[in-house]
Amino acid sequence: MLRVSNLDRSIAFYVGLLGMTLVRKEEYPEGRFTLAFVGYGNEDQYPAIELTHNWDRQD
Fold this sequence. Notes:
This protein is α+β, with helices and mostly antiparallel strands. Helices cover 19% and strands 41% of the residues. The protein has one helix at residues 7-17, and strands at residues 2-3, 21-28, 33-39, 48-54. β3 (33-39) and β4 (48-54) form a beta hairpin. The longest helix has 11 residues, at 7-17. The radius of gyration is 11 Å and the shape is globular.
């Protein structure tokens, strides 16, 4: 898990620069955070990196 301050920019880095795909993205309004999973293929066959974005965090 990697905590990121700018989720869109982080996804753009992993997808655009490293050639990964956005496997899934889940929002949790009650916890005020979003999880995005990026990797080189299906999570059943390949590892994924979890990007965690806390909505209220200011870095």
